[in-house]
């Protein structure tokens, strides 16, 4: 198998940075196919910590080509900042290790202004205020600015002029000040020489890598329940955060995808507004936030925390066609005498084991209690090294989701991981199949 997709199976922040970094050990190419600088991935290697927002987590692997594909919304100024930080750490080692799609759309200063102003209103959605939503609005409205336009700044200026004219009434109505054309173009003139050499038609590059038998890892952003079509609308992101986005966002056909891994945290978190039925607003929730360091890597905002939601996980398995689960932050549950999981919902029309995505606000979670454990999980490198209660918890997730667990993370470090299967070699498992517990 050559093409593996990694997606978040919850509301994002499931630990994709670490898991993609681990899977990249087996990969020749890592492709980021959606989202923008609103998706921060924290990488911990040894005592070194690195947060990337645009560049794929696979940048830490010397043999790997990293691709920012056309489904992304890319802030060119943030991209240059990340390039400088990576260069300072010696992580961009060769020419061609990073390729950027010339069809990806640029997030420009007026997008950031609009996003920030909207978040000051009563209808705020809790965005990261990075301009991602307004950029995608321009893309859909056919007035967006593909990065390829930076090859000709004269052409770019005409595109920016048109976009500013469209946004100016909105910015004025929100009480803001519209950036001037000259200011925007001056900033673009500074970064264009840095970005243009990275540009390419990446769809062909990625498809050719798959066709040639290269191992390609498609890195998702955010999570299933934030997907524009399949999430808790309108409290969603502006792109396709499910596995199908890997195809539309990178330009490869669905028949090319061999295996889909869904990342699921051992509990749930959510940032910003929107329904969160298993949310904990007590000392247990505060404890999970503290032990799990649950603060946004992009905004620093505290994440809302709650118990694991099995109906929501089954929903993610279904809409993504998940072949395997990577379970993260199991160690954060250590010390709890009792762990609850949501197994079903009471709704106005009766009890259901399905996730009531269109009526979550009126649904009441039904919980089951499981015994906790006290032992430190960080030294475990095999399932047999985990406490019995922790093993049963993993088994319960696997059984009730109908999807095998391929990896268990027991700490933030790269080596604090129980790897049960290499996603590039394991055959796509039938729902309910159980992988080797070694």
Brief account:
The chain is built from eleven helices and 20 strands. It is an alpha/beta fold and 438 residues long.
Walk me through this protein's architecture.
The protein has 438 residues and is α/β, with parallel strands linked by helices. 29% of the residues lie in helices and 20% in strands. It has eleven helices and 20 strands. The chain has helices at 16-23, 76-88, 109-118, 132-140, 153-173, 181-195, 202-211, 244-250, 283-291, 310-320, 388-401, and strands spanning 3-8, 29-32, 41-45, 48-52, 65-68, 73-74, 98-101, 105-106, 199-200, 216-219, 259-265, 268-270, 304-306, 308-309, 324-328, 338-347, 350-352, 364-371, 405-409, 417-419. Strands 9-7-5-2-10-1-11-15-19-20 form a ten-stranded mixed beta sheet, sandwiched between helices. Strands 14, 16, 17 and 18 form a four-stranded mixed beta sheet that branches. The protein has a two-stranded antiparallel ribbon with strand order 3-4. A hairpin with a 2-residue loop joins strand 16 (338-347) and strand 17 (350-352). Helix 3 crosses helix 4 (132-140) and helix 5 (153-173) packs across helix 6. The chain is globular, with a radius of gyration of 21 Å. It starts with a strand and ends in a 19-residue tail after the last strand.
Key traits:
single chain, globular, alpha/beta, 438 residues, 20 strands, disordered C terminus, ten-stranded mixed sheet, four-stranded mixed sheet, 11 helices
């Amino acid at each position: 198998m050559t093409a593996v997709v990694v997606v978040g199976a919850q509301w994002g922040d499931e630990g994709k940075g670490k898991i993609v970094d681990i899977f990249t050990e087996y990969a020749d190419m890592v492709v980021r196919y959606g989202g923008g600088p609103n998706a921060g991935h924290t990488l911990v290697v040894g005592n070194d910590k690195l947060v990337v927002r645009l560049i794929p987590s696979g940048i830490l692997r010397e043999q790997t080509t990293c691709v920012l594909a056309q489904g992304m919304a890319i802030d060119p100024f943030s991209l240059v900042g990340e390039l400088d930080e990576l260069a300072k750490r010696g992580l961009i080692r060769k020419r061609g290790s990073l390729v950027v799609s010339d069809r990806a759309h640029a997030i420009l200063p007026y997008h950031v202004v609009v996003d920030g102003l909207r978040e000051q209103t009563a209808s705020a959605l809790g965005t990261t205020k990075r301009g991602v939503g307004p950029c995608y609005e321009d893309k859909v409205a056919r007035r967006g600015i593909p990065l390829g336009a930076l090859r000709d700044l004269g052409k770019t200026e005409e595109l920016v002029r048109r976009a500013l004219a469209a946004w100016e009434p909105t910015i004025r109505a929100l009480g803001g000040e519209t950036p001037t054309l000259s200011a925007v173009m001056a900033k673009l003139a500074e970064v264009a020489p840095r970005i243009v050499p990275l540009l390419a038609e990446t769809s062909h590059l990625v498809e050719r890598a798959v066709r040639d038998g290269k191992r390609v890892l498609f890195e998702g952003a955010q999570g299933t329940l934030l997907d524009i079509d399949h999430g808790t609308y309108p409290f969603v992101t502006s792109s396709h955060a499910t596995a199908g986005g890997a195809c539309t966002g990178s330009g490869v056909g669905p028949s090319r995808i061999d295996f889909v891994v869904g990342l699921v945290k051992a509990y749930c978190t959510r940032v910003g507004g929107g329904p969160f039925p298993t949310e904990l607003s007590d000392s247990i929730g505060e404890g999970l936030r503290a032990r799990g360091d649950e603060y946004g890597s992009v905004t620093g905002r505290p994440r809302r925390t709650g118990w694991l939601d099995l109906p929501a996980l089954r929903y993610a398995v279904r809409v993504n066609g998940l072949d395997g689960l990577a379970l993260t932050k199991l160690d954060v549950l250590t010390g709890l005498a009792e762990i609850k999981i949501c197994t079903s919902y009471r709704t106005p029309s009766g009890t259901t084991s399905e996730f009531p995505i269109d009526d979550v606000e009126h649904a009441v979670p039904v919980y089951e209690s499981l015994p906790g454990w006290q032992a430190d999980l960080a030294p475990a490198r095999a399932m047999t090294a985990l406490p019995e209660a922790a093993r049963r918890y993993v088994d319960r997730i696997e059984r009730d989701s109908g999807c095998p667990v391929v990896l268990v993370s027991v700490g933030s470090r790269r080596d604090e991981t129980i790897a049960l299967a290499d996603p590039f070699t394991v055959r796509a498992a039938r729902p309910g199949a159980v992988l080797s517990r070694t």
